[in-house]
Structures
1.
Amino acid sequence: MHLLGISGSLRAASSSTALLMTLAERMAPEITIERGLIGDLPLYNADHDGGPAVARLKAQIAAAPGLVFVTPEYNNSVPGVLKNAIDWCSRPAYESVFKGKPCLVISVSGGALGGVRAQAHLKYILNGMLAEVPPTMEIVVPRAPASVSEGRFTDETVLDFAVKGIRGFAARIGG
Ligand SMILES: Cc1cc2nc3c(=O)[nH]c(=O)nc-3n(C[C@H](O)[C@H](O)[C@H](O)COP(=O)(O)O)c2cc1C
């Protein structure tokens, strides 16, 4: 099973990216998680096609049997950079690469709530593009930055739970 992983944070020491990359290491080779990059995308403008970075991300999404988002919560919702990437890949409406695409959402935060509002918003956004958001265990990670060391995520309890979640997601979508 091959999945595409997208982090909602661009910063180098991101706990979202650390968690995604550590999970990719833990899941392999049974499940491989390729990284989809969103940091080089231009701001969405319907007058343009977005160029090679958008084309590459769209192709990665189209080719993957499922997506794994790991995103922080910004101001009670998803970060603008993630929404920008989703907007680019959401056209043509209801016929985009997201249509029917199984998506797993993991949220993180620096505080105690684990980004639950961002998680709910992202699922709502994905539903609007006719993506599939299968019912799975909800993976929320509070105080995530405290568990990052040298670019890796270190909280074994969180990692075990998330590994189970991704395995269950993969099994559900046919992996
Ligand atoms: C612009 C901004 C807005 C934020 N808003 C929230 C928020 O609404 N709720 C929350 O729990 N944390 C919020 N945070 C804290 C982030 O969840 C925390 O910094 C997290 O570690 C960022 O993810 P990252 O480590 O992957 O970069 C905010 C951080 C930033 C930079």
2.
Amino acid sequence: MYVLTLEKEKRIVQPNPEAMETELKVNNLNVFYGSNHAVKNVSMEIKKHAITALIGPSGCGKSTFLRSINRMNDLIPGAVCKGEILYEGINLLDASVDVVSLRKEIGMLFQKPNPFPKSIFDNVTHGLKCAGIRKKDVLENAVEESLKLAGLWDETKDRLKHSALSLSGGQQQRLCLARALAMKPKVLLLDEPTSALDPVSTAKIEELLMSLKKRITIVIVTHNMQQAARIADQTAFFYEGTLVEFGNTRDLFENPTHTRTKSYISGQFG
Ligand SMILES: Nc1ncnc2c1ncn2[C@@H]1O[C@H](COP(=O)(O)OP(=O)(O)OP(=O)(O)O)[C@@H](O)[C@H]1O
Ligand SMILES: [Mg+2]
């Protein structure tokens, strides 16, 4: 089930998304903010343990689409989502879905690192404590495991009681990643997670996402097309609320079907 692709400097083995299991099946998703029809009849299959990138010009509906997956749009007055987002046989848009449990399973990371003004340790354990976990050894193990997964353990193991705000921007973003990972999510949604970071911190996050996809399904919004090309298995191009083109990242960048995709990826607008 693997396709061998030849990159410029090195040969890598990439999974073939078409042969992968589906994690989220989106059917005819429409999102409205009052009279603004922000996402228009979008259908797509997000593959399990793959990285799916969402690209497109500002205002095309990427964040709106992403937020509908873990029902964050519920928090926006006047926002209405219609259609289906099937996950483990359930339509996540159903009123009966418990959004607190949903957001544990489908975590999110935002553009600006948003650690709580608390210690590094307390940031990572926040969700676990909210879920009623109090045992010291359980919390300590979760902190170590999550910080290791987020590539932050070596830098923070001797300062876990220090304020999270004493960390650099890139470290804060990895701390937010650790905080999300502590909840053992099955899916992680990332909205431009590296756009506020320097190239070194960006590369570090990209590397982490590539290794995390072994255990987590990842959906990432990015304005950085090189980033999508580097890390995503599948890429979706949105324009004015519509999903114009969706497919294997390599095909989309090297052989786009639609003229609009072609002009966007060649930098003619956006
Ligand atoms: N909280 C909100 N309330 C009302 N309208 C909103 C809200 N968020 C987004 N919109 C509107 O929905 C449309 C899609 O916006 P969205 O933020 O999803 O785009 P985007 O592709 O993420 O853009 P960007 O790349 O600038 O982040 C836009 O017309 C925007 O004005
Ligand atoms: Mg956005």
